[in-house]
Predict the structure.
Amino acid sequence: MSGWLLRRLVETFLLLLLVSFLVYGLIGLMPGDPIDLMIAGDPRLGAADAQRLKALAGLDRPLVERWLGWLGRALAGEFGYSRLYSVPAVEVLWPRLLNTLLLMGISLALALVLALPAGVMAALRPRSALDHAVNLLAFAGFSVPSFWLALLLIIVFAVELGWLPAGGAAAVGGEGGLLERLRYLVLPVATLTLLTAGTLIRFMRAAMLETLREPFIRTARAKGVGTWRLVTRHAMRHAMLPLVTVLALQLGSLFSGALVVETVFAYLGMGKLIYDAILGNDFNLALLALMMATLVTLLANLLADLCYAWLDPRITYDG
Amino acid sequence: MTAEAAGTPGRGFWRRFLRHRPAALSAAFLAMLVALLAAMTPIGAMTGLDTTSMDLAARLAGPGGNHPLGTDELGRDLMMRLLEGGRVSLAVGFAGALLAALIGLVVGLAAGFAGGAADALLMRLTDAVIALPLLPLLVVLAAVDPARLGLPAELAGGELASVLRIVVIVALFGWTTVARLVRASVLRVRRLDYVRAAQALGAGPLRVVLRHVLPNVAGPAIVATTLSIGNVILAESVLSFLGLGIQPPLASWGNMLTNAQELIWQAPFLAVWPGLLIFLTVMACNFLGDGLQDALDPRDPEPAFSIRETPRCRTASAT
């Protein structure tokens, strides 16, 4: 176990290094770096000045050398200043990360609450009308463009019905408190939930169908266990095991969904932060936020593998 | 496992495919869509409408009159832009899926056939890409200025270049499914007698892979490619919506929605059509892939074990 864990930790670390190198290299290729902006902002500066400024900032050195420099500072917890917010990038990051984890956490929980019964009921009556309906909903869930679903919800609930705000966050210092904050969460959470539920439903249905063919289910049935108990006590436990892995894998696409949903609803989370930082040439912040999103997803997957071994004693990772 | 189950569409393929009603309907829908998009030029000539003329007196007009579906915020005809957007989105979708399939095939064949350390490395990489927050990372890639890669400006700035760039970027979304499915079938096929016979006769690894293995993993590869068309179209639409994909004035279903949000209070109908078409097209591709999978690999020809039926004795061996 410890050998396996060590190997996975090393793998995760190497992958982080690889992603950071790629992102670091790509970010330098985006239009409008700080020196471009300085040159554009001051007509007295010419090409020679640009060269001098580049040398001053160390931009004339090879990419690998610059990346190693960044890495060294990053490992020391030094991520530089954010150009857009004029504070250390780390200070911008934390509240945004919390907001996003809140958004993703609630959405994932609700998607599970939706997907578990739907998937199980569909699996219990394969090829029934209910199964077809659930299947259609699941396909709709992973076929719908995230931004369009968000726009549709805005049209229905904000424009036509006027029940909920179309985006943003509760006004600073406004009355209302928690309830008011929740009103702003409803539509983003609903969008992300519907986007995630489809995949989970399909997975749950397949896992349940598979489980119902297992000999131990037939044994339990033969012993006279009732349907309800058979499903909740015997089949569910078995079918939900791989769910741990699936949920962790969902985190990556949740971040992708969050980027779109947060941008559409002007929700102050990591996704919008990454988008704004990239478009605003805030290199330090973009790098930090991207690495944080990557780190969170990779760690979640590592954790899921650990949980899986812990939940299913038949699985060992050594050998 | 016979060669038939490993890939070639054997007997009953069409019967099984047509029995999957959503897939048959989807195929019909996609055929109609392609025919409609192909008829764009005659439609334009017949109605006298085009994609770029601005009718400033009739901005945001509703359906009816000169413009069957109304006009956008610049007074351009919505129907013509939808047709052009469809051509662009579908072309990018197909091209991106083909490129994704190519990457996936190479990775899957190499991993499955080489085995050992190469297999482990490639599959860990594939798993990692699946787990990563892809959209945030691809936003960086989409924001890169190709001129900084040393490409000449006229080549980097052209319309074709920007479309090709998006094709490459979205292909990076889609290749993982193909790679995994292809690897799984290679592992199955390469142990079959005829492959071993070819090896025993002295065929080199490249010849074995290309002549004997590749044709027999075509089925799963086609299924995975079909399934990834949907994902690729979604990816293109999201990037275009965010302003990082297809650049106006060229229309794509995604970038037609970029301004829809600002106009949502004045012209909510603008947001409906492009998104609906993306949704239906992606859903059709997904159903088509699902149907092909069922038809090519009828693992589950009978309705699975229903919990209501009296448990019969079945062979317990895993199928």
About this structure: Chain A has a mean pLDDT of 84.
